[in-house]
Amino acid sequence: MSRFKDYIDYDAVGLAEQVADKAISPGEVLAAAMERIETFNPSVNAVVQTWFEAAERAIAEGLPEGPFTGVPMLIKDLNAPVKDTVLSNGSRLFADNRVDFDSELVARYRRSGMLLLGRTNTPEMGASASTDPVLHGPARNPWNLEHTPGGSSGGAGAAVAAGMLPAAHATDGGGSIRIPAACCGLVGLKPTRNRNPMGPHRGEGWNGLSHEHVVSRTVRDSAAILDATHGPDIGAPYHQAPPERPYLEEVGRDPGELRIALMAKPLSGAAVDKECQWAVEETARLCESLGHHVVEAAPAVDPDEWSKTAQIIISTAVAWAIGEREKQLGRPAGEDELEGVVAAIVARGRTIEATDYFAAVQTMHRIGRAVGGFFQEHDVLLSPTLAKPPLRVGELTLDTDDVRGNREAMAGFSPFTSLFNLTGQPAISLPLHWSEDGLPLGQHFAAPYGDEATLFRLAGQLEQAQPWTDNRPPQFG
């Protein structure tokens, strides 16, 4: 058994401070993390690969001195190369896809002193708001094992919620950081487009829709980890202006009196569960009590147009990725190597004309300009993260031929998040409320392009006003 009994009480910043003060050793942290993974992973199926021996060797060889020396990190099994590991993308087609380099983001985790412990579960090609891959089996929500931890970073969300580690790598192409954060009672920031590096294997993800960062228990961890990773890598096609000050310094700063637009119902007209409606109204009242000005308002964009645009871009991106794997293997994907919905996405992507793709990119940027105009009059947009509490495991499976039913179910579950993948703006989900059944109900805040600082200031204020870190899944405490 681990000698570090209080491991679960520390966030990543706190663990790093304990290691720096020599109150605990990296080896003790690693032992505690391994113990919790081995104890709880059989219940939640969050971790699909472990690299414990490599982590022990890294400690023996001497860890870099950085802001997170000795702090554990899990890497999502999607588009995140880690040298000498398998990157399966949740797909049987990639089950033996061994990579021989680190992505720049992973390299920055290493340079910060983090210990890389393994990979987390994800749906095939990241194509779902739930995590139920045939390859690895479904991930489960620590708050209720019959429910999903969300997707596509569901394994990351389940691992953090179960107390295996304080923060985990995640990606977001339509809500895949924020959805698991909402389902698992965590903080989930999708940064501004290309705030974090995407190379060296790609210039951007899904034509700029996809972003990388973490899910975490605390706001300060999200801020401090972004401090350690943001900025362009060599040859980046574009990058964002650096922040005025470290993001960690924004947490605890007075956000001032913000103009908050409340969008309690989605532009698509999808129904919102009564508890999600109640939660966002309570959040609006909390914001008003803190001195912010809340008005009902929403961007004037066509939800059908934005959905169609995202589908074109994602379909072509997934079709290209599968095509590249087929070239690598020297054969087409077998019928038993792709789940039904993913096979349909690929088939559709291969029929899209180049001019239609170009038109979709132009529409994406036009929507971004329209939403940018909305934020000239509002500092933050508040909505529920999801229209429903976490669904049951299997409700959004990709292993089906009912493609339309799957798409409609996903649109009904997560109608709020994907707009900000199109616009590239930062957005965060915060765990401010729980349902009567004890399931988390995330609250979603978006800010102007490049303005993570406002989100960190507001999130820090809300975390202090209505703390959530003591809310833990009972059987994983």
List keywords for this structure.
15 helices; eight-stranded mixed sheet; Amidase signature (AS) enzymes; three-stranded mixed sheet; 477 residues; globular; single chain; alpha+beta
Please give a structural write-up.
With 477 residues, this protein is of the alpha+beta class. It has one domain (7-299, 361-476): Amidase signature (AS) domain (Amidase signature (AS) enzymes). The chain contains 15 helices and 13 strands. The protein has an eight-stranded mixed β-sheet with strand order 6-8-7-12-13-11-9-10, with helices on both faces. Strands 1-5-2 form a three-stranded mixed β-sheet. Strands 3-4 form a two-stranded antiparallel ribbon. Helix 9 (274-289) links the parallel strand 9 and strand 10 (293-296). Helix 2 packs antiparallel against helix 3 (52-61), helix 10 (303-329) crosses helix 11 (340-349) and helix 10 (303-329) packs across helix 12. It is globular, with a radius of gyration of 21 Å.
